[in-house]
Structure formats: structure tokens, C-alpha cells
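Q: What structure does this chain adopt?
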Amino acid sequence: MCGLCGQLRFDNRVVSDDRLKKMMKRMVHRGPDSSGSWIDGHIGFGHQRLAIIDLSNNAYQPMIDKNLGLVLVFNGTIYNYQALHKYLIKQGYQFFSHSDTEVIIKAYHHWGEDCVMHLDGMFAFCVWDKVQDQLFVARDRMGIKPFYFNLTDKAFSFASNVQALVTQEVDKSINSVALQQQLSLHGVVPAPNTIINGVNKIKPATTLTISGKGKVVEKTYWHPKSIRLKEALTDEQFIQRTHELLRDSVLKRMNATDVPIGVLLSGGLDSSLLVALIKEIGYNNIRTFSIGFEDINGENGSEFEYSDQIVARFKTQHKKYMVSNSQVLTRLGEAVANMSEPMVAQDAVAFYLLSEQVSKHIKVVLSGQGADEVFAGYFWYERMKAQTGSDIERFTKHYVDRPYEEYLQTVNLKYHSGNHTETWLHHEFTKENTDTFMDKVFRTDVTRLVVDDPVKRVDNMTMAWGLEARMPFMDYKLVEHALSMSPSLKMLNKGKYPLKQIAKGLLPDSVIDRKKSYFPMPALKYVQGEFLDFMSDILTSSKCINRGIFSQIFIAKIINKPQNYMTPLNGSRLWHLALLEFWLQINIDE
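A:
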């Protein structure tokens, strides 16, 4: 787990060491253990390392294999690296390290661009092939690891976060397509766009091959399907297979490390089930970590009532942290400064503050992200299913943050460029290999929306403290299995039926049967008091007015009655606007 950056120039200029160092400086938190850079004329790499596998200097990056003429920078973990290492040795390769990094180099040399089909893990990497005079870039199937880039006729520049790229000469103007999506899909801007025009991101399960002359070829190497096989499994067989795949997913994430692993324990079904499965496969001395906040408007700010039960049952080595609302406000700027893109979810700040504490004890954690998307855990799925109308209408009514008409009132005329969210949804919903409307919803959520919402914010907030988060529910084999399952089976018993069946006998009934909750941060949901003053100051500031995104007439209305502007997912629309402007002030203006 690391931070990577670099540049390939097409204009015969030498890559600047100073500019490379500027990008690396903005990613130190992602890899605090060591740093390295490499420049060879028109190509240069930078790297910040978080040492997880092969802690020796042999795994140092950028990794150079002189015999093969390859140089690599890599962020992530290859879970099957040990099996690949053994296979590649049998093919005649000699290794100088025990790292998954070197496995990628040898795999690329052996299989070429098809190497990604053999890698099981979360990854973003670049291989410079000197013989071919080309750069090969890849992102994992589920898009867990980030990869941002800027492409011009002069150079291809890339980094693990936007903050690093904006130290270069990039267009920092607002992307009108991304703006409409940002304010409609609660912070999700699907790849390849970001909120600023000069920065793009690679789609999940995608590779880029860039020649030294600037020719770019993009390929998608994985297409999950949402169709039932003719000889489908019975419900019992689906649940049994889910148990097997989830246990395998946990096991390979526990095994692929040379440092201890813990669990971010919320007290919900997902993270509690991870603890149970770790115990089931034979691990003891499990480390768990929980966080809680102050209650507001009768909404609980912590789930300690349930996480304590898991700690007691499995006798974990547990630490829990209570955070006051005053601390949330004073630390908010730090969290936003570590967001590669504006992230409106309340729990982004919670993960930031929790990760700070966890990183003092451990380097790797398992987290339950993805379970709700993969196994239908959210309340809006049932509402969508019951809704009438077109696919777009059924989805939009229960998911999109604000009607398009309100969006037009929210932003100034300059950004009235069309309903890009609706256009994007139409494209996703008309893809082949889905049986029903709900299949389309789950596939879109699992392969696109989850990438730029919970997955991205967990990666950003944990890596802000040099902490690696692994997500067993996002295992691509488990996802493929879940997408082949009938939506009705997943949606039984208010959702996540297969997981609830697996949990019976493993977890307390009170945890299994409890009402679905969310990582709580009430102060950013029920905006009042000093939080309201804080958001008002941002949105009426001279910077915000001069930027010219938002209509100040609408801003005044929403500040006056923020409780009247809640999203279908129970989020604050005021916070959405304030967060975007705050992120721009911290990460783009400064």
C-alpha cells in the first residue's frame, strides 16, 4: 500500500526531478516508511512506501529489473502473489525479493498486458517497458486503488491523489459534467471525470498503454454479468457458496502480509461477520477498533452497544474511541485536505479520526465496505423495486440527491449544461448482460457507484494515516457470485439475507436482527449551531462568490432552513454544497 506518481513526456524534454518531488511530497501520508524516485530522460517515477509485504530494502520502489528492462511503481496488494511467485519460478524467473511488487514485474514480462487477468488483489501500477518504449498502466477490477492522471500533447502525468497532480500545470477549472454528478450522486463522479477539467481517473478493470510518442490505447479487461445461469444453484447452495467465497476472501487478505491485521468494528452485521470468519478460519488474538460520536436529535452517535457484544463473544483485543462534536469541527479541515475528491458522506470524517488512532497500533485493517451494495443492504433498494415508471425514474426518485430542476436553481447559468447524471445512468442501464431492473441497479452500484463513494473514502481516510484497508466484501469472485444471484434472494428479510443466514450461530441474534444503521456522524446530517455557522461562512465567503458556481439566492434559502433540504438518502444538501466549496478552497485554491 503506497502512493505513486510520475510522468512520461512526449516533447523530448527531460522529466523534472523538482516537479516529481513536489508530487511525492503531497503523498507522504500514503507511504511514510520510505520514498524513492527514478528518472530516465523523458520518463520518471516517484514512490512513497508503506511496507506491508517483504519489509526489506529488496522491495524498495520504484523497482528496477535491469535484466528484464522494466521499472515499476505499484500501490496495493496482490493477494495471490505467493502462488504466482512459485509459478513464475517454475517458468525460469529468478527473484531478488519476496514482494508482490516484483511478482507484477515478472508477470508483466511473462504474460504481457494480460498479466492483469492473473492478478487477484487491489492495485494501481505503472510498468515502464524500455524495450517497447511504452508505459503500461492498470487498475484493479473493483477500483479499490486510485489512479489519477493528466494527459496533454506534451506529457502523461499521474498520481495516487489529485493533490499531487495539481502541483503540475493542469487545468483547474470546474468540469460541468462532474459538477452535476457530484451534486446528484452524493459525491460520486464516475471515471473518467473528476470535478476539475485537468484531472481524470482510470475506470476500474481498465488498462492504458501509452507509447513514448503519446499514442494511448485503453482496454477494459473484466466485465461482470448479472444474468442467471440456466442451471442455477438453489437458494441453499447460493448461501453455502457465499459462505465459502467470503471465508476465502477473508483468508487470503489475512495471509498476504508480513505485519499484523486488525478489524474496523462498527457493531453492524458486516464488520462483525468479518470478526467471526477470522475466528472460524483459525486466527486468534484478533484486534478490533471502534469509534463513536455524540448523539443529536435522538440519533445515536455510536454503536458501542453492539460492538461490545462482538468483543465479548470473540474476546478480541479491543480499543474504542469517543469523539466530541467540537473535535469533529476543529479536525474537519484535515479530513477534507486528505480527500482526493470531495466526499460528502458523513462517515468520511469518522474514518479519518478512527484511522488516526488505529494507525498508532497497526498497519493493516479489514473493513466491511461493499457488503450493502453486493448483498442489497440499503433501504432504497426495496423502494426502487416497488416504484413504477422507467428504469431511470425508478432509480432517480430514491437515490439522486436533488431533482434536476433544483440543480438548475442551485448553480449559476454557466453550469446549466444538461442532465449528465441521467445520461450516465441511461448508459449504465442499457449495458448488456442483465436480466431485470434490480440487476441493473446492483451492477451499477457494485461496479461504478461504490467505487467513488464508500471504497474511495475508506482508502483516502485510512491512507491519510498510513493505514491499509482491505475489503473482503469487494472480492471480485464474491461480487461475480452475488451478481449471479436472484435479487429477491438478496433482498429477503430487509436485505443481506445470505449474510444473515451465514451469521446465524456465529453472531448474537441482536446483531443480526438489528435495524440497519450507518457509520454515524449526526452533526453533519442535522446541521445546526456552530456547524451551521461554519457552513454558512464557507458558502457566503468572497472565495465562493467569486468562484461563481452557486446561486447566492439559493444558498440563502438553504442556509435559512437546512432541515427542509434533505436528500432521499437522508443526507444534508447544505453539507453537500459546503463540502464542495470547502474542498476547492483547501485543495485547489491553496
